[in-house]
Amino acid sequence: MSAASSSSGVPGPAAPGAPSEADLLDFVRRTAADTVLVASLPLDPQGRTWIRLEGPGGSEAWLISWPPESGTGWHDHGGSHGAFATAAGRLTEQSFAARLPTEGWTLLELADGIDRERQLADGGGRGFGPHHVHQVFNASSELHAVSVHAYYPPLPLMRRYSRSGRVLRLEQVEWPEEWA
Question: CB neighbours of 27 closer than 8 A, spacing ≥ 6?
């Protein structure tokens, strides 16, 4: 187990020299501007496609396509911090204005006014901390979107949530070997 992980497998304090949220945001923005790389990603009309990239400082990075009307559903990044930027098209991110606990609960009632929504068009990006819960989707009914994502430390797990009104429920925990 690395020095940047706790006994639960969830990242602990960042290792010296680890990429910051700002470093990851700079990387995803620069990579999203690489038109040759973005054009190399095969687009599937039915499902998302991706290419694994080498991120800065040992981070995990991905170039991902988003067919029309596709999305992630609500999820977190297992305690990793990260960033993403749109390389083509437009993505919508819905998130929360408050830091949510990522462990120790299966059902959480959200306060009024906690919802946030961002539109990220070509080159638009954002960084996020280790407690970020969000969903990202391509709302277009006709056009693909493409984005670049980076996480540090590399994702130890992802938690998937369902949402009904103000209630957020932990539904599933995914492990890296499931994403191969």
Answer: 19, 55, 56, 59, 61, 83, 148, 150
